[in-house]
Design goal:
Layout (H helix, E strand, L loop, with lengths): L2 E8 L10 E2 L4 E2 L11 E8 L17 E7 L8 E7 L5 E2 L17 E8 L7 E2 L15 E5 L14 E7 L9 E7 L1
């Protein structure tokens, strides 16, 4: 799989609220926030048109949005992924989504994302490719996203000395079947 690096920078000034971004205020389709419980944080939204030229193998859709949420009810060591795909244009901006989640209320600042090609085993934050620190005998699972808390200081999972992986467990378009793995260095 061709990997796509996420270049992240803290949002400053005015910007498109529907852009690809970590944390802060997601722009959601109507009703999506009602499907999530009070222990869920907004992690990342990807405007898929931003990556259509970089996803050469057409693994992901190239229209709409991909949302990453994390259920934090079990604490930092028992996180659960919630990944949602929405084909259209979202209409609802939810201000400071994470401010109501105990222990994660500081994740209200937005970090804007730009994308570029990278090596499949690249370190840092990336879509697709292969896990950059895979130390197991078996082949790595099909990776959707790799998060490196040391890549950019976003103050999320700073105690994780390693990486957070989102893996496909079903087909590439089965976003209801994503697993999460914390990998410690």
């Amino acid at each position: 799989m061709s990997a796509i690096r996420l270049k992240v920078k803290k949002a400053r000034g005015k910007y498109d609220k529907g852009c690809s971004k970590f944390f802060g205020s997601p722009t959601l389709p109507d009703g999506l926030e009602n499907e999530l419980d009070n222990d869920t944080i907004f992690f990342l939204q990807i405007r898929l048109q931003d990556i259509k030229d970089l996803d050469e193998e057409n693994i992901l859709p190239h229209e709409g949005y991909l949302y990453f949420f994390i259920d934090t009810a079990g604490g930092d060591y028992d996180l659960k992924p919630i990944v949602k795909y929405y084909k259209g244009e979202p209409t609802t901006l939810i201000d400071e989504f994470n401010s109501i989640v105990d222990g994660y209320e500081h994740l209200t600042k937005e970090y804007l994302v730009e994308f570029e090609r990278c090596e499949d085993d690249e370190t840092g934050n990336k879509l697709l490719g292969v896990p950059s620190d895979w130390n197991y005998m078996e082949e790595p699972r099909r990776m959707l996203f790799q998060y490196d808390p040391l890549d950019v200081d976003m103050r999320f999972l700073t105690s994780l000395d390693g990486l957070l992986y989102f893996f496909f467990e079903g087909k590439n378009d089965d976003f209801d079947n994503i697993s999460l793995m914390e990998e410690y260095s």
